What does this fold into?
Amino acid sequence: MPQQSKKAKASKAKLQSAPFRRTRSDHSTELVEDYLELIADLIDVKGEARGTDVALRLGVANATVVKMLKRLQDKGFITQEPYRAVMLTTEGWEIAEKGRRRHAVVENFLLAIGVSSETARIDSEGIEHHVSEETLRMMARFTNRKS
Amino acid sequence: MPQQSKKAKASKAKLQSAPFRRTRSDHSTELVEDYLELIADLIDVKGEARGTDVALRLGVANATVVKMLKRLQDKGFITQEPYRAVMLTTEGWEIAEKGRRRHAVVENFLLAIGVSSETARIDSEGIEHHVSEETLRMMARFTNRKS
DNA sequence: GTTAAAATTTAGCCAAGGCTAAATTGAATT
DNA sequence: AATTCAATTTAGCCTTGGCTAAATTTTAAC
It folds into this structure.
């Protein structure tokens, strides 16, 4: 099999690998968004977000949450004092809100195309992090037309 | 704040955490599917799948591919002899085909709702792994109706 | 005000998926 | 056939996101 030139290969690869690289780098961001969204929900519903609640909802051990919260604090998304509930910073709220918005758009869209509410709830959780603004716009447009 | 009973908490948590746990456990599966799909494509297009091509397309170092291919072999999805191209086993082909089918359904669906081809290509890559059979059916139905 | 229970944190472990650098093997050219 | 260059593999490292078990701190009940 004849070899392609190095340059040809490289440029082709750049194009091709972009989606994959994006998918992969998203993974760390996904978790952050899940945490922040959940914390925002807990604060709205229960008045505060405790580590244990986060752990329960995410289906993860307490220690895992502690570690993650420390990271969220380092990144400036939450504030916390030892043994107390966590607060979202302004930036934390912004990310959480953005996530909730995406989430809602995707979930409503799935409902609009006829998916059951249970499935819409589950699938939107997975999909929300991988949808570009453009796709989100199209989803919202479709949903609005249907309602 | 009054405490809920342990039982109430636990059952609520079980419900809530299901989607998250699924999203997380998917991550390992996702990569496997990406590799197998890509290998299948390479075999179809170029007649064989070499480690370097996989690395280039996934935007990942050679050594990373080697390690992953070893895992794919252990799981029985591919066969390989040292310094030679990899082959898909029957099971490997099945997974690759399933992935390609999902991928195609999602991509065509995105196109059908008006997303640009570039975005459809990118987003479908991320979304494909998080779509249930039910949602996939609805997407296919919608696409067929539009065409 | 003690004490018991629950929540939180710490410590230390593991596997997955990345990387670079160095060693090895295969293939192509001369 | 020897050499050179590209591909592959090995070795060793790192980070992330999990876990359990043990220690600590709050909170609630008495």
Notes: The domain at 25-146 of chain A is CATH 1.10.10.10 (Arc Repressor Mutant, subunit A).
